[in-house]
Amino acid sequence: MQRRTKQRSAILRVLREEGRPLTPEEILRQGKKEVPSLGMTTVYRSIRAMLDDGVLVGIQYPGQPTRYEVPAPEHIHFICNRCRQVYDLPLPQEEATLSLPSGFVAEGHELIVYGRCPDCAPGRPGAV
Amino acid sequence: MQRRTKQRSAILRVLREEGRPLTPEEILRQGKKEVPSLGMTTVYRSIRAMLDDGVLVGIQYPGQPTRYEVPAPEHIHFICNRCRQVYDLPLPQEEATLSLPSGFVAEGHELIVYGRCPDCAPGRPGAV
DNA sequence: ATATGTGCAAAGCATTTGCGGAGAT
DNA sequence: ATCTCCGCAAATGCTTTGCACATAT
């Protein structure tokens, strides 16, 4: 990722403004509003370049395409077991520093919590 | 997953004995040793059935096929940033009970740590 | 006996790659 | 001017599905 193009700027802006993990298709749809000629290939190539640069992180859930986001400081991913919506939630407590077996060096981490979001909470109309 | 077949038994045994997350292809290769006629379709269908039953969990990393494992109590996933090997590590400390914003109900979680495994530790021959 | 499971081949998607042309520095 | 990037179309790779036969209960 060496040159600054309007496509990449747009992609990055979309990701920053959305504030939640987006699928490549979502990125494309939003990005097209700014750069109508934007193609899916460019989205994928930009994502890959940004991943390599550490500008982006990917989050996955079985059966869904990978979502990407600009890593926010100290937050976790919450995936609703019912509606599959993906949320970014603040990490309220300082998490325990975990000690790994000797030889392993941590460079990053990701915490995914599964459960029910407010819309799908048990007891809600329509919810199980 | 209602009937007990030799294929499913084999798949489950492979996953239990291996003790780390396996790709469908790895499952197939190991499973064939026990049931030579085993096909990839059956592996995928069994995985899906076991996921639905909660017998299995999936773990993903961008650019790699999904890996599956029988959930072990209290452990984390460690993915080496260099060789991409996936390890199951014990969770040494009791993890902090985290409080979610009101309305969110946690039902499960997954912690993935990225970094360097012992073989790829900085300073090792061949490692960066 | 009958519904479920299996394996093959084909289809379905997400993602990557080849290539000629456009754009950034 | 030159090297990188873009977009299209085709290819690739993982995963699912249709169908006829096999098998567990």
**What's the SSE pattern of chain A?**
HHHEEEEE
Q: How many β-strand runs of chain A? A: 5
Total domains of chain A, how many?
2
Put simply, the count of helices of chain A is 3
CATH fold category name of the largest domain in chain A: Arc Repressor Mutant, subunit A
| Strand arrangement, major sheet of chain A | 4-3-5
CA-based gyration radius of chain A: 17 Å
Low-confidence regions of chain A: none
At CATH level 2, the architecture of the largest domain in chain A is Orthogonal Bundle
Percent strand of chain A: 15-25%
User: Hey, which two chains have the biggest interface?
Assistant: A-B, 42 and 42 residues
Give the oligomeric state of the chains in this entry, treating copies of one chain as homo and distinct chains as hetero. homodimer
Distance between the termini of chain A: 46 Å
Q: Quick check: average pLDDT of chain A? A: 84
| CATH structural class of the largest domain in chain A | Mainly Alpha
Explain what the structure shows:
The structure is a homodimer of 128-residue chains. Chain A is an alpha+beta fold. Chain A has two domains: 64 residues, Arc Repressor Mutant, subunit A, CATH 1.10.10; 40 residues, no CATH class. Chain A has a three-stranded mixed beta sheet with strand order 4-3-5, with no helix packed on it. In chain A, 19% of the residues are buried. The structure holds a DNA duplex (25 and 25 nucleotides).
